[in-house]
Structure formats: structure tokens, C-alpha cells
Amino acid sequence: MANFFSDLFSGLFGKKSQSVIGLDIGSSSIKVVQICRKNGRAVLETYGELSLGPYTGKSIGQATSLSPEKITEAVRDLLKEKEVKITTNLCGVAIPFASSLMAVIEMPVMSPKELSEAIPIEARKYIPVPISEVALDWYIIPKDKNPESPEEPKLDAFGKALHQTVEVLIVALHNDTLVHYKDIVVKTSLEASFFEIEIFSTMRSILDEGIAPVLIVDMGATSTKLYIVEKGILRSSHMVNRGGQSITDELSKSLGISLTEAEVLKREQGLTAVENGAPIKDTITVTLNYIFSEANHVVLAYQKKYNKNVSKIVLVGGGSALKGVVDIAKSSFQTEVIAGDPFAKVVAPAFLEKVLRETGPEFAVAVGVALRRLQELE
Ligand SMILES: Nc1ncnc2c1ncn2[C@@H]1O[C@H](COP(=O)(O)OP(=O)(O)OP(=O)(O)O)[C@@H](O)[C@H]1O
Ligand SMILES: [Mg+2]
């Protein structure tokens, strides 16, 4: 799938800024989005996607585990795809959540300097490789401030004041992962100014300024990523080992058809299947029920721990392009469920609105990366 319409915009707005791209190398496909700024707004210039299955003899929609050489070849192919027409090499690149390690840890209250020394030591408990092998970052999660009821010091069973703690989000990336992505960038003549774990990219494209906790459900090929964001801060992240491919695999098995046929059937009919509808719907629902029940556990655990309700569930990722998925999700959660619209923060021609809403969820990561790259130019 590819698209090209940048010429439509020339002359429509004022002077355009430099163009930038966001690159998302997913397990089943690579996505790219090119945007620029015109009159203060981010404008979509072009976007495209390339399935990786065919690079390793698999069908479209299947997850792959390609060699660095093959990935480089695929990125190169997408960038020079005539219909996509990428015209810049300024980019940012997303790194899969699966290649990262994240945890929220509790630390005693201490000065920023002391924290910066203590956090790497504490982080060792959560990181299964030597700390020298990872790039470690952290963020101190601000405490809730309620002026009506200033926080009382917590007391132990004997009435003695307990040590106050702060929550810290730690994020680690293995050095080898960074080397791998830098290598792809160099070999494809891109100029990447950052590498960002995909969760943060999706947060940027999907979320508005709301402060209540939101659960984002990114339904990828083999896995679904679940993360809770509150006041713009990532608070909890999980991975479920089921995704769009699990549905295709199940359909292929239960209906005795090839994976390619199952993929086509899934995309065309989804849960709205009419002909032989029941077996298709039932098979799809098995996987969805598993994913949504895991998501419910995550929501309930968060609500219990922090005594706050998750206000909304947002579905993104190719798996969420499944027809009828939002209705099933609505019946699985006691919370509002919406389909994410990653292109909502960029200006695009009206005639693309429908297609962007339908195929859009796949591009949540790539759009978020591009938006950050654009911000850097300001
Ligand atoms: N219209 C559609 N209906 C149903 N499923 C779809 C549709 N379009 C794509 N998918 C499914 O979405 C999945 C791919 O989603 P996505 O592109 O978000 O994954 P990815 O980014 O490659 O994987 P990951 O994030 O796990 O590395 C595939 O399993 C594909 O079958
Ligand atoms: Mg993905």
C-alpha cells in the first residue's frame, strides 16, 4: 500500500518548512510518514507501508524476523517507492517496545544528584544484563498534588513516620539494539536525530492533553502492547503474546484455508462476516477475548493500585483495523473505547479522511515519530 499526494498541497498554504519523516520498522511491515509545517500546522505530505512477509517467503500480515541486511533492503525499497515519493532523509526512528525494558520503581526521596547515582544501582535489579550494556534513562513521576488535602505523612503500625518515596520510570535499551538501528539508518542514507521506543511515539500522535488515565492498546502482528498513560506520563506497560497474526493463524486452521486466504478473509470481512459468518466471527473472537481479558487485568490492577479509574481505552495498530473490533472491545470493557486516529494532528486532504481513518491505526507510531522530528526543527 502506498500513497502520494504531496503536490496537492503546493501553493495551498504558505511557505512550507523542511520535510521530515517518521520511520516505524514493525515485525510485519515498515511504515513511513512524511510531514512538513505550513502556517504553523503539521501537514501530511505522503505516507507508505511495505509488508515484510514477502522478504522471507511469508504472506502479507505475517510477522518476520529478518536479518539486518534484509531490513535495510526493505527500508531502502520503501523509501524509493515511486508512489510514496519520499523527498527527505531527515528522520526519527521508532524502536520496538519488545527491545526495551521499562519499569516503574520506588525510590526514597532524595536530591536529584543522589537520585542520579542511586537509580542506576537500583535499576540493576530489573535489568537482566550488565548495566554497562544498556542505555538507561529515567523520569521522576510527579506526585499528585491535591491542595484540598495536603498529603499526610504515612505512618507505620507503631505510628512512626515512614520514609517517603518517589516513583521513577526507568527505560533501558540494549546497546546492541541501538547499534542495529543506527546501522540501518547509515546504510539507507537517512539522517536520524533520535531513536525512540514506539510507545512514546504513539502517545504523541494519539493522546490529547487530557489528564485522566488512558489505556492504549496497540494490536500489532504477533503481540499487543498495552500501556497506561496518565497526565501524559507512561505509568504501566505490558505485552500480550497475541496479535493480528494470531487471528489469521486461527482462521487458517479452523477453516482449512491458506494463511494468505485467511488474511484476505480477515481484512475483507472481519467481524462483519456475512457468508459463513458464524465460524469466522467465533474464531476471531477467541483471540480478541484473550487480548481484551489481559487488558482488563491491566486496567483493574492499575485502578486498584492507584485508586483511579481508567477513563478511556484507545485502540491502535493494524490489528485494530479489523472491522467490528471496536464493538467487541466496547462489550469487553466497562470503559469508553475508541479507535485511535493518528492522523488527527496533521492536516490532510479531505478526500483522504476516510482511508486515513480506516488504515490510520497502523501509522500511530510513524506519525508520532515524524511529529517529534518536526518539533526539533522549530
Ligand atoms: N484491515 C485489517 N483488518 C484486520 N487486520 C488487519 C487489517 N490491516 C492489518 N491488519 C493486521 O494487522 C497486523 C499488523 O499490524 P501492525 O502493522 O500494527 O503490526 P506491526 O507494527 O508490523 O507489528 P508489531 O508492532 O507487533 O511489531 C497484521 O496481523 C495484519 O493482519
Ligand atoms: Mg507496530
Highlighted features:
binds magnesium ion, 378 residues, 34% helix, Nucleotidyltransferase, domain 5, 13 strands, 10 helices, disordered N terminus, alpha/beta, 3 domains, five-stranded mixed sheet, Dna Ligase, domain 1, globular, binds adenosine-5'-triphosphate
Task: Describe the overall structure.
This protein is α/β, with parallel strands linked by helices and 378 residues long. Helices cover 34% and strands 26% of the residues. The chain has ten helices and 13 strands. The protein has helices at residues 68-79, 112-123, 175-187, 198-206, 244-255, 259-269, 277-306, 325-332, 353-359, 364-376; strands spanning 20-25, 29-38, 41-51, 90-95, 100-108, 134-141, 165-174, 191-197, 214-219, 224-230, 233-240, 312-316, 336-339. The strands form three sheets. The protein has a five-stranded mixed sheet. Strands 11-10-9-12-13 form a five-stranded mixed sheet, sandwiched between helices. Strand 9 (214-219) and strand 10 (224-230) form a beta hairpin. Bound molecules: adenosine-5'-triphosphate (ATP) and magnesium ion. Adenosine-5'-triphosphate binds at residues 26-29, 61, 96, 220-223, 243-245, 248, 263, 266-267, 270, 317-319, 321-322, 362.
